[in-house]
From TrEMBL:
<feature type="domain" description="PorZ N-terminal beta-propeller">
    <location>
        <begin position="45"/>
        <end position="201"/>
    </location>
</feature>
<dbReference type="InterPro" id="IPR048954">
    <property type="entry name" value="PorZ_N"/>
</dbReference>
<protein>
    <submittedName>
        <fullName>ABC transporter substrate-binding protein</fullName>
    </submittedName>
</protein>
<dbReference type="Pfam" id="PF07494">
    <property type="entry name" value="Reg_prop"/>
</dbReference>
<keyword id="KW-0732">Signal</keyword>
<dbReference type="InterPro" id="IPR011110">
    <property type="entry name" value="Reg_prop"/>
</dbReference>
<dbReference type="InterPro" id="IPR026444">
    <property type="entry name" value="Secre_tail"/>
</dbReference>
<dbReference type="InterPro" id="IPR015943">
    <property type="entry name" value="WD40/YVTN_repeat-like_dom_sf"/>
</dbReference>
<dbReference type="Pfam" id="PF21544">
    <property type="entry name" value="PorZ_N_b_propeller"/>
</dbReference>
<feature type="signal peptide">
    <location>
        <begin position="1"/>
        <end position="17"/>
    </location>
</feature>
Length: 762
């Protein structure tokens, strides 16, 4: 069943957001890591974001990197009702404290900065006690004062090696109990010398993941699903056996909750089992449980793919209450529409091997109607890696599977799946002819040419360049002569220039160009001074800019070459680096960087994504780095960029990363052919508005002058692309007063002019 979710969210944590007004987040809240609760709220943590549901009003609010949360991986969350603060723990040892009274945020880096190996700083659990919050970490226990936000002592409690992993703590009969890899350890909570490992007594041997005090009994849990209990804290008997494992054990609102990947068991205050839920019972999809809690006789269950499920203890239905969003945070590719975008989640490894296959559906976002998530079960096509929108009909969309062929959607409905069985002898091919005709068809990027033909690459076959003609017929082109070894050739992006030359990125053969009207039809740009001067033969991406230049991204840097040269058989297809001056020294732009994607905006600037260094925006000629976004200076959720695309109507730049999907509201949209559709927004500019005034629908290099009603000039600019922005100041000196301002616009040659007005209200 399709999931169509409308946007009904309210703002959350906005007051501690950085200056991120240009950014928008499109996060998934489907993979729940941990859950915490009070009597009136439930807060669930996903990989790098939170959401809170008000149990009285039903409002759902979110917090993510746009709001100021770090881009790190969350591992634990805890809500202190006493201090009215929320604690978030991370894989790296980072801790975030949210003051729920004023929604301010404080980032605590003490554990991150500890002189310990970085792989043992993970935060596993928070427990609030009379001596402060005990933080269970992979090195031991840290004591933290939630009121002053200061750390106290650190307890290294291992016997042979002091630094041992502590998964959970609890207090029982005046003692602290810790679940560790060496067993269950305890120490008197008032002992002033808890930093001495000798003060911690081992009461039960084994590798324990859980320890919980509940109704005068102590419960401990092993990863294999065995749960034991004790009345005195030293002698334990079997209580329950979960299958196949134990994921979560906690007490909440008079209940003990035990969770495995496939089962949730809820016990009352007499330790009687009052409800057992299986994964198959609460959701027909193949899900795994991750955590659970109970509030006011309602159970809330975290899952790995379906978000937070909720229902009464005796309910038969447990719908997801997670906020709307994409199916996954690791968006592999996207394609923008005039009012939204499509996103897909298939992928392949460094060798372009799609295994293990990714059994995810696809997502569409519409700014007016919200999210449409089409689950895998409706498609039955794994590892979908690219989206291609028909440029003259955005309701027709093609998606490439790296295993099962080409999908065609019309009006959000899957209408065709093209494979070997229905494209003829000149159509799509499997890797091995003996395979079923629907399997092992490895398709990557597809692109439309100016005649409406759809071109795409089909890996590891003799004729890998395919075209679906506008009339529906298929044709293939043999590439054995141009490829080093067709049996090992794998393709990545494909782009078509204004001459209708097709440029194919390969894993080991550089960049291959093809034009049906040229002689020769195929030419190659590859590594080495005499072969094209690429820094590497693995070409990840290629973009065509507004001067018909190829911007070539490889795993070891960037090259540029004029695409027109392909049509001259006597031309040398030598690509060139961009040489910039930095601190007085000549350097190569993005030297040795693994470039994952390049896109061109309306001003011919380039947005360049990398494997681990974030995003660069460079000028049209590459000589200036206009902006750089990383997880350290922006809401970017990961420095590993999978894909970039730009909405040419709004200038919004979308970044698909391994940690989530975000967008940046740029100001360079595609230029118009004339001035008939110039518009100004917002208009009027109201007192509480803090952004800029945009003048859009411009021709390239249009002259824009803004004057007050008396004719005094307050702003002048030449457009690059189809838009300019005015900060409502008089040449940056002071904010202009309330009134009507005239906007005089003329094309570069002065042949067309138009006049607009904007009202400023202070």
């Amino acid at each position: 069943m399709r999931i169509l979710i409308y946007l009904l969210l309210v703002p959350f944590f906005c007051s501690f957001a950085q200056n991120n007004s240009r950014w928008t987040g499109y996060f998934s809240y489907n993979e729940i890591i941990d859950v915490t609760q009070t009597d009136s709220r439930v807060t669930a943590a996903s990989i790098n974001a939170l959401f809170t549901r008000n149990l009285i009003s039903g409002d759902v609010s979110t917090a993510n990197t746009i709001d100021g949360l770090p881009s790190e991986t969350i591992t634990a969350v805890y809500k202190s009702a006493q201090q009215n603060k929320t604690l978030i723990g991370y894989q790296t040892g980072l801790i975030v404290v949210i003051n729920d009274a004023d929604r301010s945020i404080t980032t605590i880096v003490d554990i991150v900065n500890k002189q310990l190996p970085p792989n043992i700083k993970r935060i596993n659990h928070f427990q609030e006690t009379e001596i402060g919050v005990l933080i269970s970490c992979d090195f031991g226990i840290a004591q933290f004062n939630l009121q002053t936000l200061q750390f106290g002592d650190t307890y290294f409690i291992g016997a042979a090696n002091p630094e041992i992993s502590v998964k959970q703590t609890t207090t029982f009969n005046g003692e602290i109990y810790a679940a560790t890899v060496e067993g269950i350890k305890k120490a008197v909570i008032t002992n002033p010398n808890l930093i001495d490992a000798q003060q911690w007594q081992n009461v039960q041997n084994g590798n324990f993941d859980a320890v919980v005090a509940f109704e005068d009994l102590l419960y401990i849990g092993l990863a294999n699903g065995q749960v034991l209990r004790s009345s005195n804290g030293t002698s334990f008997q079997n209580f329950a056996q979960l299958s196949p494992n134990l994921i979560d054990l906690r007490s909440a609102n008079g209940n003990l909750i035990a969770v495995s990947e496939t089962t949730v068991r809820i016990y009352n205050d007499a330790a009687a089992l009052i409800r057992e839920l299986s994964a198959a019972e609460v959701n027909s999809n193949n899900i795994r449980f991750t955590c659970a809690t109970v509030v006011n006789n309602n159970v809330y269950i975290g899952t790995n793919t379906q978000g937070l499920l909720a229902g009464a203890l005796n309910a038969s239905s447990f719908p997801s209450i997670s906020p709307s969003g994409p199916l996954q945070n690791n968006v592999f590719a996207l394609a923008t529409l005039s009012t939204g975008f499509w996103a897909v989640y298939g992928s392949y490894d460094e060798t372009l091997n799609p295994n293990p296959l990714k059994f995810f559906g696809v997502s569409k976002y519409n700014s007016e109607t919200g999210w449409l998530n089409i689950p895998y079960g409706e498609l039955n096509v794994p590892s979908i890696v690219r989206v291609t929108v028909n440029p003259i009909n955005e309701n027709e969309v093609f998606m490439s599977s790296y295993y099962n062929g080409l999908l065609r959607f019309e009006n959000d409905e899957l209408v065709d799946i093209f494979n070997r069985s229905n494209t003829g002898t000149t159509g799509l091919e499997t890797i091995f002819p003996t395979d079923p005709p629907t399997e092992n068809i490895r398709l990557e990027q597809a692109a439309f040419d100016s005649q409406g033909n759809l071109w795409l690459t089909n890996a590891i076959v003799r004729s890998p360049l395919k075209v679906k003609r506008a009339n529906g017929s298929w044709q293939s082109f043999n590439m054995e002569a141009i490829l080093t070894d067709w049996t090992d050739t794998r393709f990545m992006r494909l782009a078509i220039d204004r001459n209708n030359t097709k440029w194919m990125c390969t894993r080991s053969d550089g960049l291959v160009g093809f034009n049906e009207t040229a002689n020769p039809q195929f030419r190659r740009i590859s590594e080495g001074e005499g072969n094209g001067n690429l820094p590497a033969n693995r070409v990840q991406t290629v973009a065509i800019d507004k001067r018909n230049q190829l911007w070539i991204g490889t795993r070891e840097g960037l090259r540029v070459i004029g695409a027109d040269r392909f049509l001259d058989p006597d031309s040398d297809l030598r690509s060139n680096p961009i040489i910039i001056e930095e601190e007085g020294l000549a350097q190569e732009l993005l030297n040795d960087q693994w470039i994952t994607d390049i896109v061109v905006d309306g001003a011919n600037n380039k947005w360049i994504g990398t494997l681990d260094a974030g995003v660069f925006q460079v000028s049209a000629d590459g000589q200036q780095t206009l902006q750089r976004f990383t997880t350290d200076n922006s809401p970017l959720p990961s420095n590993e960029i999978n894909d970039i695309d730009i909405n040419s109507v709004t200038g919004e730049v979308f970044f698909a990363t391994t940690g989530g999907l975000v967008s940046y509201r740029g100001n360079a949209i595609d230029a118009s052919d004339d001035l008939r559709d110039v518009f100004v927004y917002p208009n009027p500019v109201r007192p509480n508005y803090t952004g800029t005034v945009k003048v859009s629908g411009l021709t390239d290099s249009a002259n824009v002058k803004i004057t007050d009603i008396t004719g005094s000039l307050v702003f002048e600019a030449i457009s690059t692309g189809g838009t300019i922005e005015w900060d409502t100041t008089a040449f940056g000196k002071y904010r202009v007063a309330s009134g009507v301002y005239m906007i005089f616009i003329s094309t570069e040659d002065g042949a067309e002019t138009t006049v607009k007005k904007v009202m400023i209200v202070r």
